[in-house]
Specification:
Shape: elongated
Radius of gyration: 19 Å
Order of helices and strands: HHHHHHHHHHH
Helix content: 55-70%
Distance between the termini: 40 Å
Length: about 220
């Protein structure tokens, strides 16, 4: 895409959803961090179902450590890889107490040093909690970036760097949310709903655009 097309791509997303938000539920920065850690290879909806009761009871690192590993597992057992994730959450909570006074640091290196926290998780927390201009590339954003031509790359990091390079200033803070929501609900992996996409004329995926559902149904009758 040209610079003008990239700006128009984002302008349309912004017009359709001026105030995008994460779909993960949390009550403070700490619970956001926990929710993002738990969301790896899991759906936001599934994480929310498991954490509503948890976060009503536990919303600080000290409370999480006191709950303990077995107590946490009981809350999150419906989430994939819950055994490993529970260990990471308890360990990162202890690290926050030992190294950061129980507060979530506003620093990428410090976040990535926490157990179970990688670059994507750090990017989400920095963006959502602190308003940093970061690009947390998950499978949805990786797909949208490559499929549309907005930010092509063979690796997650390559797509992230491309997004960082091409995304104009007015759209940088919310770019992550616009792209993930677009990938989740419109530019889907198996059956992208190109027929209702507001970016159709800008997108490089036109040769594989499926017909409108009603047209398919009409031909079948």
């Amino acid at each position: 895409m040209t610079r003008r097309e990239v700006a128009e791509f984002y302008r349309r997303l912004a017009e359709a959803n001026p105030h995008p938000e994460t779909e993960l539920e949390s009550v403070n920065v700490y619970t956001l961090l926990v929710a993002v850690v738990l969301s790896a290879q899991a759906t936001d909806a599934g994480v929310n179902r498991a954490t509503r009761a948890l976060f009503a009871e536990i919303d600080t690192p000290a409370q999480m450590v006191a709950l303990g590993l077995d107590g946490l597992k009981q809350h999150i057992r419906t989430i994939g890889l819950f055994n490993t994730k529970a260990k990471n959450v308890i360990a990162l909570s202890q690290s926050l107490l030992d190294q950061h006074g129980g507060e979530v640091p506003r620093d990428r290196a410090a976040l990535e040093a926490l157990p179970g926290v990688g670059r994507k998780t750090a990017n989400v927390v920095l963006n959502v909690a602190f308003g940093e201009e970061t690009f947390a590339v998950d499978t949805h954003i990786f797909r949208v970036g490559n499929r549309t031509g907005l930010a092509r790359g063979k690796t997650v990091l390559a797509v992230e760097k491309k997004l960082d390079a091409v995304t104009p200033a007015p759209f940088r803070v919310h770019a992550h949310h616009w792209l993930i929501l677009h990938g989740r609900y419109v530019c889907k992996a198996r059956r992208p709903e190109c027929w209702r996409c507001i970016e159709q004329d800008l997108c490089a995926f036109k040769p594989k655009t499926p017909p409108r559902p009603e047209r398919t149904a009409a031909r079948a009758t």
